[in-house]
């Protein structure tokens, strides 16, 4: 049976259509009869063929056939009217005894996203987004693991970089490792703490201390003592000492690694009356200093500041 909108009764016509699959195998010979066409101008119409006979039942369940028919108006009154079949589209609904299953995945005839996995099923296929993507399989969007916090980079010593479908981790200087496990240099983990308030450059000299006998070892300024050594000379009689120590040469960057510097001691109008060589490391958020005995004994002391 053929169904059309805007139908009226006209002479019946008969045509024969041989349908073929994309595998070029003939499926069935169908006779289309008694086709009532749409009213004037009768140039062309769309018809949907519904196969309802018992012998065509399985085929009807498996396929939907769309015909675009063109009719010559001048021949409409002729029972042998010519029907030109211009286009036949066969849409597969499900597998049937008349057609083997088509693997849409292996033939690349599916609609899965490029970032999805296609899985063939009987008569159809399924799409699922790959790991690192989210969506329905037909549209997949990259997951930004760095922004969402779903990565496993080191929480404080590494940086996360998003990539398409994944991410990468890299340890921040001066730490080293694979980005998921990062370790600071030993001097950034094993150091002595210089945290007394009387070591700060704003403190006077009520007791007169010195760094004679300090170290040798790595030390960090923190707490009430400040966060680093001053890089310009403080006045004498500060930091609870006579000759005040300061770092000559400036602090290194993280990329500089471990560097050698000079500590000068301000005394008797000379900003570098005494001096000693030390090592310094920038640990990212703080500095550590390799200190040893002062060059003169008492009263010389390394000061702290913020």
UniProtKB/TrEMBL annotation:
Cross-referenced SMART domains: EGF, EGF_CA
Gene3D superfamilies, alphabetized: Laminin
InterPro entries, per database record: D8C_UMOD/GP2/OIT3-like, EGF, EGF-like_Ca-bd_dom, EGF-type_Asp/Asn_hydroxyl_site, EGF_Ca-bd_CS, NELL2-like_EGF, NOTCH1_EGF-like, PKC-binding_NELL
Keywords recorded for this protein, A-Z: Disulfide bond, EGF-like domain, Glycoprotein, Repeat, Signal
Domain EGF-like: 101-139, 142-183
A Pfam family that the UniProt record links to this protein: D8C_UMOD
Name this protein carries in UniProt: EGF-like domain-containing protein
